[in-house]
Amino acid sequence: MCTQFYNPRPLLNAKDLDGNVPRIAIVDGNRTSGKTTGHLGELFRDWVDGKGQFACGYKWTGDISGASESIFSYITSYCDPETGEHLFPDIDFDAAPVGKGAMYELYATRPGETELEVCGYCFSLNGSSKVRKYRSLLANVNTILYDDFLPEDGKYCPNELDKFQSIYLTVAGANRPSPTQLRNVRVILTSNHTEISNPYYMSMGITKRFQPETKWMRGHGWVWHRDDNTAAMKAIQEDSFLQIFGDYGTYAAGSNYLIDTAGGVERLNGRMKYIGTIKVNKGLVMTAGVQYHYDTGYLYISTAVDPSCKVMIAPPGQSYEDDVQSTKQRTRIMLLLLDAEASGKIRYETLEQKALLYMLLNKKLGG
User: Fold this and answer.
1) Cα(299)–Cα(289) distance, rounded to whole angstroms?
2) pLDDT of 94-129, one tens digit each?
3) Which residues, other chains included, contact 246 with Cβ-Cβ below 8 Å and sequence gap of 6+?
4) How confident is the model at residue 175 (pLDDT cuts 50, 70, 90)?
5) Which residues of 132-164 are buried (b: 16+ CB within 10 A; e: fewer)?
6) How far apart are CA 350 and CA 348, in angstroms?
7) Lateral strand order in the sheet of 272-281
8) C-alpha distances in angstroms, 134 versus 45, 87, 98, 127, 224?
9) Fewer Cβ within 10 Å of end Cβ, the chain: N or C?
10) pLDDT for 126-149, tens place per residue?
């Protein structure tokens, strides 16, 4: 029986804030719970039932060359989450590159048949401009799955959210023909628990609304679910290998990464001095103001940004044309931020501002 694994159907059947089928469905959860297997299995079942092809999206072009083996390994191991029935144990599959590896075409047999048919594609966000050249092939793709869309190492593609939207337009604009300019294409995002403060959640407003007890959240056109699978949690907690090291097993088992992420979030009032602007590009350009709070002696990271201030503090490797101040001045402010964070003499207007500072300092929020 496989009923202890993650069941994707509640998310797939959930409605958005307006009562509609959401265009984006998101789940993040603990490791080894079966999120990838569940959603790939349901996508393949839809294809078998004549509901259209699917696509699997990855971040980097180098990730797609061997992806088909992994994709079909998940599909052939999929069990119905309610009955435990092993649905697709005997399918045959294959894959072939398109456009010198710009994307891959996926082939499979339907249960009980022997002829290979196109069931889907895989491509990368970083190769979005190349994928666009072959959009006519994607006219029967109705769902895109991005697995592990939140990386543990925090490394996103340059301008990732722009590429994410470009891929959507490429697929939705592939008419077959269609009476509308854009077809109704659904996007499913799956991830392990990493950080609640990431470019996707911050852009969608999830970070602002999140509370530690939140399990479901709905917006206009999207729905988000945090899944803590008890069977996976128990297996990780009882694994003797992971018990040797402790910290990673604790993170992988549950939602511990979320604990204390809101520490230091407090709105300050009173007299302040503006000293610089944090500017970070993690697939989305984000800014925050750095101010000195006279009453407490704390540094305050706020949403208010002074456009006249020319002191831009950015992570290594990121620079901006309007950053005209000396390296010495930026270094001084960076040292102030490091000292304030280490000593607890810092406050954040919202969780988003805390996330920006941690991105700047290359630290894991809640880690």
Assistant:
1) 10
2) 999 998 899 999 999 999 999 999 999 999 999 999
3) none
4) confident
5) bebbebbbbbbbbbbbbbbebebebbebbbebb
6) 5
7) 312-313, 272-281, 285-293, 299-302, 346-348
8) 25, 32, 8, 12, 31
9) N
10) 999 999 999 999 999 999 999 999
Q: Which two tokens stand for residue 247?
A: 């910290």
User: How would you class 5 by CB atoms within 10 Å of its CB: exposed for 0-12, middle for 13-18, buried for 19 or more?
Assistant: buried
Residues contacting residue 30 through CB under 8 Å, at least 6 positions apart: 192, 193, 227, 228, 229, 232, 233, 236, 252, 253, 254, 255
Judged against a pLDDT cut of 80, whether residue 244 lies above it is answered with no
Which one-letter DSSP state was computed for residue 114? Answer: -
| Gyration radius (Cα) of the chain, Å | 23
Tokens of 304: 């208010």
* Tokens found for residue 110: 């339907």
Q: What is the pTM of this model?
A: 0.77
d(C-alpha 152, C-alpha 203), whole Å: 19
- The pLDDT score that the predictor gives to residue 366 is 45
What are the φ and ψ backbone dihedral angles of 51, each rounded to 5 degrees? -100, 15
Residue 111's nearest CA partner among 83, 85, 90 is: 90
CA pair distance 103, 132, nearest whole angstrom: 10
16: tokens are 């958005």
More confident residue, 355 or 81: 81
- Cα 347 from Cα 353, distance rounded (Å): 9
pLDDT of residue 177: 67
For residue 131, give the nearest of 95, 156, 101, 107 by alpha carbon: 101
Distance of CA 233 to the CA centre of its chain: 21
pLDDT value at residue 269: 93
Mapped to the 3 state alphabet, what secondary structure does 310-353 carry?
CCEECCCCCCCCCCCCCHHHHHHHHHHHHHHHHHCCEEECCHHH
- Give the percent of the chain with pLDDT over 70: 87
Q: Which of 164, 182, 96 is nearest to 127 (CA)?
A: 164
Tokens of 289: 């103001």
Q: What single letter denotes the amino acid at residue 112?
A: G
